[in-house]
Design a protein that fits this description.
2 domains; five-stranded parallel β-sheet; 38% helix; 450 residues; 17 helices; Rossmann fold; alpha/beta; binds iron/sulfur cluster
Length: 450
């Protein structure tokens, strides 16, 4: 999808192609590493800036002949759009491409606000094709920028488990997802398809990051168990090379139940935690989101994962137009009962459903009856809850979580304060703080939030 074309003359020069990442959940952005490698293989000498850990190098921006901005998630898109104006001031005519999941979903807005190209899906291949299409003469001019290196892994979020700290590398073994959860931004782009990456490509990425000091690998596939044997073969090979390396991955509850026999081996191969998008325990909400699991399934998944000696870190979407105050309280009670207080980053209790343009949720009858308005600048449809208390609770919890995070308040204290707020709103007695030992909760030091 594009607005106009332009023909640069020196796009093979070092730094002429500039890729910028704004935010990728605290890890080294694969939205830079994979396109960087693809462009280098095609003969270009791209440079990068990761503004999550670096300042915007204005000289790099001013001299670029093509700029790609990676927008794999909502937060990255908002930051990327903010950056656009500054880039245009520095380099008014440079072709700008936004790439990643949220680019095509919001293409109408982006193409009319200073972006020239929007691509999603298999972005590395498409970026190379796009840059090649801009080449009129394959000549190298004397641009005096050195092709830069990505920031070191120490600049990114770390693995933590009590006193144990590890440097984290990041890779993905697949793109896309074979499932069609309605609230997820992946189905509108991939439509139920997923693509395994070549085993050697993934192992090579792991090897390079281990050489840089990584001792833990995050597999950031949308769902690592879409192709379980593909993932397992990679893990076995990784273990053969690096038996002390630990790792984490993300998978849905349904897959934990379906592939339960593999969890002891995942643990033996170094798995320390698994993230799973539980989202809700309410049957109504889970049906609308088409998650294909129930509260009982979540409890079984916990037994499977914790039984194997791996931690399960559930993620939630506790504020939706269909979530009741009882549903919200049920999540808190569940977390407490299952001793998961430290397995959930407090920001999770403030997550509000995003409905981006093109979302599969817009096809659901329950959504069609809502009074939705698209706020293009927020890249989402706006909704209000029929029970005004839930919107009020969302605001209060959001403010509390942000403030507590700034002040370094212990997760357990934030959790109980949120629970007290919700219980008070319901007119229930203040929940009693349990004097229990919480389960070990290994984590990456960046709250999971997209
Ligand atoms: S929420 Fe997870 S399982 Fe569902 S479509 Fe998205 S990536 Fe796939």
């Amino acid at each position: 999808m594009h607005k106009e074309t332009r023909t640069p003359s020196s796009i093979y020069a070092p730094g002429a192609v500039l890729l910028i990442s704004c935010y990728e959940l605290g890890h080294r952005p694969i939205g830079l590493t994979r396109p960087l490698r693809a462009l280098e293989s095609a003969g270009f000498s791209p440079d990068t800036i990761d503004i999550a850990v670096e300042t915007l190098d204005t000289e790099k921006v001013s001299c670029a002949e093509f700029i790609g901005i990676s927008v794999p998630m909502h937060t990255a898109l908002r930051l990327g759009v903010h950056l656009l104006q500054r880039i245009r001031e520095l380099n008014p005519d440079v072709p700008i491409c936004m790439y990643g999941l949220y680019a095509e979903l919001n293409a109408d807005y982006l193409l009319s606000h200073g972006v020239d190209y929007c691509i999603s899906g298999e972005t590395s291949t498409q970026l190379v094709a796009l840059v090649q299409s801009l080449v009129e003469k394959q000549q190298t001019s004397q641009v005096t920028i050195n092709s830069g290196k990505l920031p070191t892994l120490e600049k990114y979020a770390q693995f933590e488990d009590n006193d144990e700290v590890r440097t984290v590398g990041y890779t993905e073994t697949t793109h896309g997802c074979k499932h069609l959860c309605t609230h997820c931004p992946i189905p509108p782009i991939y439509n139920g398809r997923f693509f395994p990456l070549q085993r050697d490509t993934v192992l090579d990425e792991i090897q390079k990051q281990v050489a840089e000091g990584a001792t833990h690998i995050t597999f950031g596939d949308p769902d690592f168990l879409n192709g379980p044997m593909h993932g397992l073969r990679i893990l076995r090979a990784m273990y053969d090379f690096y038996p002390d390396l630990t790792y984490d991955f993300t998978t849905k509850i349904e897959h934990i139940l379906k592939h339960k026999k593999h969890f002891p081996e995942f643990a033996q191969l170094g798995c320390r935690f698994i993230i799973s998008a539980v989202e809700s325990l309410s049957e109504t909400v889970l049906t609308i989101l088409e998650k294909h699991h129930t509260r009982a399934d979540v409890e079984t998944a916990l037994e499977i994962v914790h039984g194997a000696g791996i931690a399960l870190r559930p993620t939630w979407v506790p504020f939706t137009p269909w979530t009741t105050l009882d549903d919200y309280l049920e999540i808190l009670e569940f977390v407490n009962t299952h001793r998961l207080v430290y397995h959930v980053d407090p920001i999770q209790y403030a997550v509000r459903l995003l409905i981006p343009p093109g979302s599969y949720l817009l096809n659901r009858p329950e959504t069609k009856v809502l009074d939705l308005t698209l706020d293009q600048t927020a890249f989402s449809y706006m909704w209000t809850h029929p029970d005004a208390r839930l919107d009020e609770l969302h605001k209060t919890v959001n403010t509390l979580v942000e403030k507590d995070a700034r002040n370094g308040v212990d997760t357990k204290d934030t959790f109980y304060r949120i629970w007290e707020l919700a219980a008070d709103m319901k007119g229930q007695p203040i929940p009693k703080r349990r004097n229990v030992s919480y389960l070990p909760a290994p984590r990456i030091t960046e709250a999971w939030f997209c």
